[in-house]
Amino acid sequence: MTGGPGAAGTATGAGAAVGAAGGPVGGAPRGASVDDEPLLRVRGLRKHFPIRRGVLRGLVGQVRAVDDVSFDLRRGETLSLVGESGCGKTTTARCILRALAPTAGEIRFRRADGSTVDLATLPKRRLRPLRREMQMIFQDPYSSLNPRKTLLEIVGEPLRVHGVGGRKERVDRVAALLRMVGLRPEYLRRFPHAFSGGQRQRIGIARALALSPSLVVADEPVSALDVSVQAQILNLMLDLQAELGLTYLFVAHDLSVVKHVSDRVAVMYVGRIVEVAGTEPLFRAPRHPYTEALLSAVPKPDPRLRSQRIVLEGDVADPGSPPPGCYFHPRCRYAIPACRAEAPRLDAIAPGHWVACHRARELTLRGVDA
Amino acid sequence: MTGALVTAAPGAEAAAAVPILAVRDLRTYFFADEGTVRAVDGASFELRDQATLGIVGESGCGKSVTARSILRIVERPGRIVSGQILLRRAVAGAPAEGRSGPGAAVVDLVRLDAGSREMRQIRGGDIGLVFQEPMTSFSPVHTVGNQMVETIRLHLGLGRAAARARAIDLLHQVGVPRPERRVDEYAFQLSGGLRQRAMIATALACGPRILIADEPTTALDVTTQAQILDLLRQLQAREGMAIMLITHNLGVVAEMCDEVVVMYLGRVVERGPVDAIFHAPRHPYTQALLRSIPSIHAPVRTKLPTVAGSIPHPHNRPAGCPFHPRCAHWIRGTCERHEPVLQPVDGAAGQQVACFLHHPPAGAGTPAAAAAGAAR
Hints:
heterodimer, A: about 375 residues, alpha/beta, Rossmann fold, 8-stranded mixed sheet, 4-stranded antiparallel sheet, 11 helices, globular, B: about 375 residues, 14 helices, 13 strands
């Protein structure tokens, strides 16, 4: 741990506090059924990667890609993980899907049958039935579809792997899925190269929905698409969520996109969540200086709004050797000596609004207007 | 037009109004077995002294091929088929094609040999270039400094030590911390932001009067993007360069540019001052594009207006106006048969649009009809 055992204790304490207070759940989610138990409850999640050097591949350090992350994801809501490259948002998502084995922490997932499992510690062989309930939409619609398979094979593959239905039923199901994502069912026998980027992303979404999952993790699903096509895919995702009651964990760096899809947003910096809140309060009145800087850095598509941007100095901290105290303090214009000395805990500052900043209660930060 | 180019009066105000680069009806085609791709198909625009011109459009619109055409680095099977690229050079008495005025000469880059000495001087000398991905633009086996030194020695004829000193100075100017150490590092040792700064420093090495930046911040994080955009602005104010900024990001355009060119499938569909493009766009494509951008100012969880369909494959380019199959306002019998050309928008200084809604096709086109079309 950065600051010795003392700091480690503080960090774990923060995780425990979050758990005791019922977790960083937002305000009442939009229209979703009120279910006390979240679909996903993440507590103290850590993923460390070893740094090895030399001929003997000796361990010389660790990259704390995800460093004590806790959040809840309610059934039917969209929570976005945002932050810049290396902040750990994708690693967090991959740990939840168990594409990576977490170093520590708990990922409690509520199954369709009402039972709860800890994905963090579940043995690999017991993960397979769970794959039906959580699926992923990938960033790059070009590399994520096998060019040698037809749409029927691509979208039908999850059904085949999980032994759902016979051949005839699978064809019908795939046709229905294609229709659902706005593609013509006649395309069944075609190959991905015949489709544009936006259409390919629709194919990827159809594949993700084939097994009727409850949780869909979307990692930058529109960042590789052209602007005029992005809007189509975002709208489709909103429609499908309303229709099927999907829960989205949305990983993105584009805050404008995030605002269009999210109920709540968690901002990450160097492996930690620095702020979680409902989308509207987070954008209108951010409480963490890093969130403020992120919002201010987004170029606004209006030449009359050429504003005074907050330009952060320096680069994002190296998660292999982060600075002491608050990881953001070297770039923070509000930093005080305490920020260097001690890592702030993620605390509730308002109902559903959690911030990890020593000065969160005294600062008035600038957000963006609706 | 060419006449206006060469009557460059000394005096800053006049100079600011005179284009330093004028592209006239440029066509760059790619001749492949499957057919000809008209990547750039009749693009015309001007870059003014010390101004920033944005070239925007989505994939396949020809914005990057336009930049490569200007630098004459279009790769085979592509080549410039016709058009002019008129560069005003400040060199007095240099051998140049075209006419020359006092202290300035206009060169048509299309007529130069891509490998000629003059073109090599222009590339990197008159015109600096910044690419999207600084990782792949730098050689992985040479230090950043050595690559800069090579450029500086080639263009300025300095000795090794002097060139190295200049490289360190340039890195310092673009805000690279501890430049005397960074100069000996390799590209992979630098962060994305520092690599892009080093790339900009290399582009500035010879004091170019034009900087072409092709998606300079697309690979960067948003806070790093803000740093690089700030840097470009500062450098422009200090060095007085003209910047041609190629991007798909309309937010970056709104923040940076004085004028904007909107391209779709190889054609300029609209151009004008930045405020007009964002607040009074005339082309249905520009309007649709602006409506469909996710906005940070939008209410939470709102659906976006969309542009129907997707960008056609370059081999299936629609006849007539390339946008008509996706256009909500297309005129049957006109838009699929005729290709609209850029024409001035009435009552909007400097704004031009290529659309039959504003300018009915020749034959039907009287000035009165054109005015009625624009007013619609």
